[in-house]
Design a protein that fits this description.
- It is a single chain.
- By secondary structure, the chain is an alpha/beta fold.
- It is 28% helix and 25% strand.
- The chain contains two helices and five strands, in the order ββαβββα.
- It has a three-stranded mixed β-sheet, with helices on one face.
- The radius of gyration is 13 Å and the shape is globular.
Length: 76
Amino acid sequence: MCKTHVLGVPVDPRRLLSTDPGFVQRVRGGEIAGFMAADTLHPATQWIVVLGSVHYLTPSKRLAEMLFKTEQGATK
C-alpha cells in the first residue's frame, strides 16, 4: 500500500478567491506554511478565501463567494 502525506491544504486556483494576486505562486514555491499546490494525488476539495492575512476554508462555492463579498465590503 502506498502512503502519501499531505503537507498542507491543497490549493487549486479554480477554488480560490483572493485579494492577494501572488498567493498561488507563493503556495507553489512552498512559501506559505499550511498550504500546498493541488495535484492529481492531492486534489483541492475545499474553497479557499484569502483576504489579507486571513484564510477561510469552506466546501461550498456559494459560502466562499458570500465570505469574499462580505469581507471585501467590510474592508472598504
